[in-house]
Amino acid sequence: MNIFKKTIFSVLASILIIGNVYASDKIRIGTEGAYPPWNSKDASGKLIGFEVELAWTLCRYIGQQCTIVEQDWDGMIPALLMRKFDAIMAGMSITAERQKTITFSQGYADEVAQLAVMKGSSLEGMDTPSGINLSLGGSDVKSALKTLTGALAGKTVCVQTATIHQNFLDSGDVGSVNVRTYKTQDEVNLDLASGRCDAALAAAVAFTDYAEKSGKPVVLVGPTFSGGAFGNGVGVGLRQGGDDAIGQRDAELLAKFNKAIDKARKNGEISRIAIKWFGFDASM
After folding, report:
1. 61-110 pLDDT, tens per residue?
2. In this prediction, what percent of the chain has a pLDDT beyond 90?
3. Fewer CB within 10 Å: C terminus or N terminus of the chain?
4. 206 phi and psi, to 5 degrees?
5. SS (H, E, C) the chain
6. CA distance 277 to 39
7. Is-contact 39 90, C-beta < 8 A?
8. Please, are residues 201 and 115 in contact by the beta-carbon 8 Å criterion?
9. What gap in Å lies between CA 169 and CA 164, rounded to an integer?
10. What is the rounded CA–CA span in Å between residue 250 and residue 228?
11. Beta bridge partners of 41
12. Residues paired with residue 125 on neighbouring β-strands, in sequence order
């Protein structure tokens, strides 16, 4: 009898979970709200930025209402898996390591990484090849990494925790670097400006946005990086689909986002929004 009751309760619980998933037609999208100009908050606390505006656009193409959920970066993927929201749009690069846990839509924007220093730094004027794609390898990549290894030896480089930028610094590709991690990019920017960091690594637009808004003399140095540890563009992060009803819904949502991104790209929407927030066309 007890086994029978447990079975009934288990079935009812499963029905309730599935019912809750389908009860709301709204797509819940998680974002950080602390990584301008990708996503941030205005003075009133309202979420704004490239990805916030793009999220509304994609949901319009999908034909469903959206709600955007604020989530700390280091808990972003766990929160997605716990179904706090249905998708991630938070400047999250598509990497092989992340694809072991979640899946991604096609990329909607490029995110090139670059080092930043304060004006007057000894690292200014670093002579390296530009536009380094780690996936391609070759002499330019080797030359750039060798130059960076020498330049960053003994230096403290600040970076946001649990990011592709930290992964790159920890990889050993630029030697043994004193890596200092922070919860948010804002904290990285502040410590760079205050002199607690010799350099910082993040998306290049994160530094140019900070310099423009703060008036601080932040200077980008070295090559722009993409590929390899830096991933293959930024996409919508989603749960991996499964055979049950909830898993099928996740798989359907992936198809919807891919279709919406195609439409938004063809109609020039992604380019328009990127130019508005970045000052250039970062669409893929």
Report:
1. 999 999 999 999 999 999 999 999 999 999 999 999 999 999 999 999 99
2. 85
3. N
4. -65, -35
5. CHHHHHHHHHHHHHHHHHHHHHHCCCEEEEECCCECCCEEECCCCCEECHHHHHHHHHHHHHCCCEEEEECCHHHHHHHHHCCCCCEECCCCECCCCHHHCCEECCCCECCCEEEEEECCCCCCCCCCCCCEECCCCCHHHHHHHHHHHHHHCCCEEEEECCCHHHHHHHCCCCCCCEEEEECCHHHHHHHHHHCCCCEEEEEHHHHHHHHHHHCCCEEEEEEEEECHHHCCCECCEECCCCCCHHHHHHHHHHHHHHHHHHHHHHCCHHHHHHHHHHCCCCEC
6. 10
7. yes
8. yes
9. 9
10. 27
11. 47
12. none
In one-letter notation, the amino acid at residue 220 is L
Q: How many angstroms separate the CA atoms of 248 and 40, rounded?
A: 32
Q: Could you give the angle at which helices 245-266 and 269-278 cross, rounded to 10 degrees?
A: 80
Question: Quick one: pLDDT band at residue 37, thresholds 50, 70, 90?
Answer: very high
- Whether the upstream peptide bond of residue 37 has omega within 30° of 0, thus cis, is yes
Q: Residue 58 CA to chain centroid, in angstroms?
A: 17
Does this model's pTM top 0.85? yes
Question: Which residue type does 266 have?
Answer: K
Q: What is the pLDDT of residues 109-147, one digit of tens each?
A: 999 999 999 999 999 988 888 889 999 989 999 999 999
Going by pLDDT thresholds of 50, 70 and 90, the confidence category of residue 48 is: very high
223 vs 96: CA distance, rounded Å: 23
175-213 residue pLDDT tens: 989 999 999 999 999 999 999 999 999 999 999 999 999
- Rounded to whole angstroms, what are the CA distances from 212 to 72, 278, 284? 24, 11, 25
